[in-house]
Amino acid sequence: MADGPKILIVDDEPNIRDLLTTSLRFAGFAVRAVGNGAQAISAVLEEEPDLIILDVMLPDMNGFGVTKRLRASGYTAPILFLTAKDDTEDKITGLTVGGDDYVTKPFSLDEIVARIKAILRRTMQDDEDAVIRAGELTMDQDTHEVTIGSEQIELSPTEFKLLRYLMLNPNRVLSKAQILDHVWEYDFNGDAGIVESYISYLRRKLDQFSAEPVIQTKRGFGYMLKAARV
Question: Which end of the chain is more exposed for a tag (fewer CB within 10 A), N or C?
Fold first, then answer.
């Protein structure tokens, strides 16, 4: 068996499970495949895979429900959704509940492998200190705790990823395209409205504890977290 990163495949179609298993093992990954949400949750508890390929349409519970339960249990590794539904609203839902990427069927095996490698590269190359500080903000990347001053802020997984990207680039204007690429790793067919929505969510949570707006809009250019990196 391969001793590379561990991948869990969750799909109720045996031919897709077999196809992905063969291709990913050939690419050097250690692979386990299951056919429903309950089996997926059990497999994660047993092995803690480095990444999950998760079909949205499962016979017992949908992939979004599986993701919510896994994230609530503390599982933080990347989740790549796999589905036949090519709908922007579903993509937004999947990424909002804690997914990291979204691939629609029919898919290219080369694309799947490339996306997995890109996601794992981003996940495993974090050599920064566990704690990031920018102005009044403090973020612990291990515990996923965020504070502004002495106040602890509760963030969704996507809000956390967005704030992390802003905090790693303080006093730098980031375009919507840059934010989409680094936070969502998906271009939503050019629809950047999701960025505006999540910036708004963050502002509502942060600005109530700050004398000045934490995230500034640079009209026509993008967004900037106004703070000195500590």
Answer: N
Instruction: State how beta strands 79-83 and 101-104 pair.
Output: parallel
Are the CB atoms for 202 and 163 separated by under 8 Å? yes
- What is the pTM assigned to this prediction? 0.59
What interhelical angle do 63-72 and 88-96 show, nearest 10? 20
Whether 41 shows a pLDDT value over 80: the answer reads yes
Structure tokens at 172: 């730098």
Q: Domain boundary at 83, 109, 124, which?
A: 124
Is the same domain home to 101 and 71? yes
* Tens digit of each residue's pLDDT (9 = 90 or more) over 148-197: 988 999 998 889 999 999 998 888 899 988 888 778 765 445 567 889 99
Domain at 39, CATH number: 3.40.50.2300
End-of-domain residue from the set 124, 139, 155:
124
Task: Tell me if residue 155 falls in helix, strand or coil.
Answer: coil
Split into its structural domains, the chain has a count of 2
Each residue's pLDDT tens digit, 95-139: 888 888 888 888 889 989 998 988 887 776 554 568 888 889 999
Q: Which distant-in-sequence residues (6+ apart) come within 8 Å of 226 by Cβ? A: 135, 170, 171, 212, 213, 214, 215, 216
Token digits of residue 216:
């500034």
Shared domain for 11 and 106, answered yes or no, is yes
Structural domain of 39: 6-124
